[in-house]
Structures are given as C-alpha cells and as structure tokens.
Amino acid sequence: MKQENEDMELDDKLTNNEEIVQDETSTVEGSEINGDNTSDEDDSLSKELNELKEKHNELNGSFLRLHAEFDNYRKRTLKEKAELIKNGGERVLTEIIPLVDDLERALEQVHLADDKDAFLEGLDLIYNKFENFLNQQGIKEIETTGETFDPERFEAVSLVPAPTEELKGKVIDCIQKGYMLNDKVIRFPKVIVGE
Predict the structure, then answer these.
(1) Based on the number of CB atoms within 10 Å of its own CB, is 171 exposed (0-12), middle (13-18) or buried (19 or more)?
(2) pTM of the entire predicted model
(3) Contact 94, 189 (CB under 8 A)
(4) Which has the higher per-residue pLDDT, 27 or 184?
C-alpha cells in the first residue's frame, strides 16, 4: 500500500514536470518565431500606453469622487435652504406671541366692563384676525388642559392636589399658552399639574 502511494506521487511529479517542460518549450518556440524582434520602441510605446491608462483611471476616479462630493453638497444645501425657509420667520413670530397674550388680557378686562358691546366686538375681530395670521404662518397653540403631563411639551410651574383621581399627572390649568411652529415647540406652555 505504501509502495502504491509512493508510485502515485512519483507519477504526479513526472506529469507536473512534463507540463512545465511543455510550457517552457512553447515559450521558447514563440520567441524564436518572433525572432526576438521586440524592439526598444515597442517597449517604450507599451510603457507609455500603460502610463496613460493609469493616468486615465486616476483622473476618472478623481472625477467620480468630486462629482459625488458635489452631489452631496448640493443635497445638503437644498435641505438647509428648505429648513431656513420653513423656520425662517421664527424670531419675528416669537416676538409677536406676547402681543397675543396682551390682547387676551385686554379682552378679559373688556368682558368685565359695562357698556362694552362695540368695543368688545372690535377687539374680538382683531384677535380673530391675528389668530388667523398666526395659523397661516404655521403657528399652532399647544393643547394643555386635561392632557397628560409631558416634560417634553409642557413646563410645570406648580403642582397642586388633583381634584379627582383621574386628573393625577394631568394638566389642570394653563398659566401661559405654548406654541408650535411647524411641529417645533417655540414656546413651552406653563401649566399647573395635578398630583
């Protein structure tokens, strides 16, 4: 058995050696057919062609990277521009919100005064127009009373005992309204929470 394995290994080595010899013979014959006419000019042209191919590949890769970077830059600037347009008036609108508070206070006082019908009607119209303006600008009031207290949406100014069991952990009263601009809180409502 051992002898058979050695014979098989010897046969494999002979077969491999014959293949190597045939490859070398064909290479030598090919050289003789060409007569080793490979001149320096052909070598230099081949080298120059390879250099040009490498340069082409390098420049093509550089172009593709530059193109991808520019495309990313373009997309990023478009996104930033859209964000600026969407929330651009935030500062102005934030400064207008205290006017709404003042109008609400004035309306409360006018409702308490005597002989007020004409004045009250005028103030109500102004307030409604102003509220419509805010809605058109994307400002919406945050609903508070009866809502479950969420520190991400509300600012608690005090805790009071809840009048009923179901009002525990919920907003009982709103001291100052809060507003959102396009799903972003621009002023948190100040609320009283039941405990």
Answers:
(1) buried
(2) 0.48
(3) no
(4) 184
